[in-house]
Amino acid sequence: MSKTTLNKISEILGISKSTASKALNNYADVSPKTKAMVLNLAKELDYTPNSFAQNLRSQESKIIGLIVPEIVHYFFSNIILGVINAASKCGYAVVVVQSNDDYEYEVKQLDALLQKNVDGVLLSFADNTNNFKHVKSLLSNNVPLVLYDKISKLIDCNKVVIDDIKAAQMATQHLIDIGCKKIAIVRNKLKSQTTIDRYKGYKKALLLNDIEYDKLLDIETEDVSLESGKKAALTIFENHKEVDAVFAVTDLLAIGVLETFKENNVQVPEQISIIGFSNWLLTQITTPHLSTIDQPGQQMGKVAFDLLYSEIINNKNNVKEPYKTVVIDTKVISRESTK
Amino acid sequence: MSKTTLNKISEILGISKSTASKALNNYADVSPKTKAMVLNLAKELDYTPNSFAQNLRSQESKIIGLIVPEIVHYFFSNIILGVINAASKCGYAVVVVQSNDDYEYEVKQLDALLQKNVDGVLLSFADNTNNFKHVKSLLSNNVPLVLYDKISKLIDCNKVVIDDIKAAQMATQHLIDIGCKKIAIVRNKLKSQTTIDRYKGYKKALLLNDIEYDKLLDIETEDVSLESGKKAALTIFENHKEVDAVFAVTDLLAIGVLETFKENNVQVPEQISIIGFSNWLLTQITTPHLSTIDQPGQQMGKVAFDLLYSEIINNKNNVKEPYKTVVIDTKVISRESTK
User: Fold this and answer.
1) A72 and A138 in a common domain
2) Does residue B57 sit within a domain?
3) Model-level pTM?
4) B115 vs A contacts (CB less than 8 Å)
5) For residue range B142-183, what is the model confidence (pLDDT) as tens digits?
6) How many domains does chain A have?
7) Is A318 near chain B, with CB under 8 Å?
8) Residues of A in contact with B63 (CB under 8 A)
9) CA distance A300 to A85
10) Do the domain assignments include residue B56?
């Protein structure tokens, strides 16, 4: 047995396939009686229209591709949700792929998406992506692209980001406002634009408050994992007793720092305040609850899709609009780890 | 400008479109010289084969649909990852949709997937799904379906689950083994098969250890949220000082219970032991770290895709195999909240 096809409907009713198709698509040159007959039978047979033929005619799949660095990740889960909710409202489905935060795999996954003829792509770069041939090839083929979160300023396309410099500056300023003076930063290597910008924001806040940047309090980690946070905290605990606050560039790093301080009986926030970045659900579970920067993933996902959709529609109508970069607002979430 | 098409390649090289297509698909009746010429030009022009025409010929999209109740959810994120990694290896893309854990929306999303002509569907039911007309219609149209995690025994298809009865029994037995005698269960309403089975497992462990089931220690909650866990803990704290252990049917419930006990100076595990269910990342962050049942999402996602893929291949070859239910192993993860 096979799926119900247009063939079957036309056969049963003794009409041509094209009449059956026209009836289903509500064409004016088919009689209301025939239309009703076809629609009733289609319903009875659970007929699903063959989108392959429709796609071939329209050269549209009504499917978009979404590349995320990591799927098991609170922020990116929120991105996915924001994208699919917005896409669903416009009749688009979303193919989700993961780059494993790796350039080579990102290229491969983008290629796989294009082979499915997606109508557009949403992409957040892997940390080690610094060659952009793959996205330039996409753009030269006129496939709409929106970069979100981890972007590159070298690519000319629509983008949606938060202002990482401003957000990190706000986080550091929050620590200064509550009286902290020796503020360490825990960060991964200065490769991705987000880390670079958060680092800049930290230094900017120090500068504006006449606090000297201290290279020794600038702790570089391998990555942004819990384990790396723990190692960084150990360095601070063993060598820098003067530190009274830590700004960690991700929540996982911050939680690692917190765990290690607790293990070593360092009181948070009495001795050291800690602030993270992203507002993962995890931050509401730690003891004490973690202060952080809210990074609204669902909203970012929605805006990313909306930008892509506009471009798809514009392309259909041969309209060309200048590319935009939408900046999503963030705020400090002050909880128990900073007092 | 439009995407590079087969037309353009054939035009530039002065060969027929069908020859160009055959060259790209490595047909034997095209000379090696022509093949090389076509492939080089295709590469130069960043040509992506038109999958619409391919799909129409094969009546395959090489896309499958994955319905999850909730996307921002550690376990389901792992499911998604397991599915897309397995699918990618077989050349399949995965459209991800969310049912919002709601029957009506689940029906709508399944319909949206079918309109994209997916080759098969992976589905975990919403908590309030107890009408199965939508999946029966799917099956009668011969669209391969695999149910995972939240399944129904009433549907005849491939399934992948954990043995929730056994897992809950193991969790309760763990509490008994460490000396607990007054063991409360915190659970949502007995609607989904998973909750029903975890409830059965709890009662089975009590029975096997000659501990009487106490209706008063059976705390029913609105849902499986953190807040519901907190409310349940308050009921236990205020009315049942004799309780020495809690089995919560999800990690979020367990964490809510833990938070409220801590706020009320109940020592965990000294006064009350707590065990959750699922092994979310969160459970490694709480103080004390939470004991739980490991529920391997990635493995479940992989097995679900593999079952679907087998069925797709079998259908192509007109092979019919009996449906299987694969049971994934679970284990108790003993941490600081049970001693």
Assistant:
1) yes
2) no
3) 0.82
4) 48-49, 51
5) 899 999 999 998 999 999 999 999 999 999 999 999 999 999
6) 3
7) no
8) 63, 95, 116
9) 12
10) no
